[in-house]
Amino acid sequence: MVEQAPRPPLDRIAAAIRRERGRTGLSLSELAKRAGIAKSTLSHLESGTGNPSVETLWALSVTLDVPFSRLVDPPRPRVTVLRRGDGVAVPSEQSDYVATLLSSCPPNARRDLYLVHVEPGVPRSSDPHMPGTMEHAVICSGRALIGPDDDPVELGPGDYMAYPGDVPHLCRALEPGTSLLLAMEHS
């Protein structure tokens, strides 16, 4: 059975397109023309009644000279948890493909990616990293307790979490064979 992707957040996408179009000073007609989409499609998207595809949103982001994520990613608190099936998912019109944005990289930051394998037992306790460090984790298999020492969260396969890495934090496997993708973001 194939999981049904959640619908994109149409109200946030509509507000973001209107905001970015206003920032550029482009008319609805001019933006549609430059992005190579129908004016009626853009009008529906801006009113929150359209059904955007990943191709349409990419065309708009390129034309508006903004990252794709700026059109779909809402502001987030310092600790973010996305359960499997949550998140901004945008389907393709051309293939069986759904892109789910987990996190956008802030300006002037860099990310290092790690594949982590962890087994039950003593948790991995980490001292604070450089100020401004954020960690992003996606559970690939198993279950783990992850996050700040004072408020870790249990995650399962497909779950995503972002948390400050500049405070004491931990990772404890709750099942044998636990693996996760870990991204460390440094500003």
Please provide a written account of the structure.
- With 187 residues, the protein is α+β, with helices and mostly antiparallel strands.
- It has five helices and eleven strands; from the N terminus they run αααααβββββββββββ.
- The chain has helices at residues 10-24, 28-35, 39-47, 54-64, 68-72, and strands spanning 80-82, 88-91, 98-101, 110-118, 124-126, 134-141, 144-148, 153-155, 160-164, 169-173, 178-186.
- Strands 1-9-6-11-4 form a five-stranded antiparallel beta sheet, with no helix packed on it.
- The protein is elongated and about 60 Å long.
- It starts with 9 loop residues before the first helix and ends with a strand.
Give me the oligomer status. Answer: single chain
Shape: elongated
Summed up, the helix count is 5
Please outline the major beta sheet: 5 strands, antiparallel
- The portion of residues assigned to helices is 25-40%
Average pLDDT confidence is 85
State the end-to-end CA separation.
41 Å
